[in-house]
Amino acid sequence: MKMSSSRGLILYHALPSSYSQKVVLALKYLNLTYESRLVNLFDGEQLEPWFLDLNPKGEVPTLKDGDLVLTDSADIIQHLNDRYDTRRSDEKLIPNPVTPVGRSVAEVNQLICSVKTFVLTFGAAFHPQHTENSTLSDEESKGRRAFVDKMTECIREKLAVAKPPYKESYTYKLTKISTGGALLKDENVFLAELKSTREVLERIEDHLSRSQGKWIFFDHLTLADISLAVLLYRIKKLGLQHHFWAEGSLPNVASYLDRVLKDPTVAESLS
């Protein structure tokens, strides 16, 4: 796979972040060299001024490509696709959207991305009675349960003494976490998202039943595969797989996950 030079790429990311995992998978699949800089979300490193100078929203992933800074995983992958993936348009991570295959990849990716992964993630931490065989560490589980309250307190402390432009960043973060924090702890919201996710995966099962390649559409990976691999890996790690593909249910989804996790690039990106 011939690519343009990727010297100077710096990725600020967090291992527990599904959005970060998507970008790491794209970078590794495209064989791009990049400098990895981990941001400790549980310790609030994303709230430090040095990081807010890069990304005023205080979110990962963030990519620096020379003087260009990109702060959204979808925008980052689009940039990597446009600048560094030099294959034919129908073989790229994101095929030309005006073509039939490009439209199909975009539609399936949008369907997968409709799953609220953060609701599943925090719901599993707050309601472990709905999980089985989770591989999360105790530290990660405790960190997620404490995250909402800890971050709320931390942001308020920083906001009290902040000056522009950090004041605007802390206000944004406080509003966001105050609005969503209670929902993340609500068991009914979590159960509703499990149901919605099941409906999405039933539609993905249909797509996979018609696939003739290793991935959803082809023998090469697309943006839709990045999203699906990250989602299914997260579900399994959280111990939620029994809600979806236990006892022979969704067999194509189950075999897809087993298959792609044997791919070295995927395994390295998601571990």
From TrEMBL:
Q: Domain GST C-terminal: where?
A: 141-271
The GO biological-process annotations, alphabetized, read as: mitochondrial fission; mitochondrial fusion; protein targeting to mitochondrion
Gene Ontology CC annotations of this record: mitochondrial outer membrane
Q: Which InterPro entries match?
A: Glutathione-S-Trfase_C-like, Glutathione-S-Trfase_C_sf, Glutathione_S-Trfase, Glutathione_S-Trfase_N, Thioredoxin-like_sf
Domain spans labelled GST N-terminal: 7-88
SUPFAM superfamilies for this protein: GST C-terminal domain-like, Thioredoxin-like
- What Pfam families does the record point to? GST_C_2 (PF13410), GST_N_2 (PF13409)
Matching entries from PROSITE patterns are given as: GST_CTER, GST_NTER
- Hey, which family's this protein in? Belongs to the GST superfamily.
Q: Which PANTHER family match?
A: GDAP1, ISOFORM A
This protein's name:
Ganglioside-induced differentiation-associated protein 1
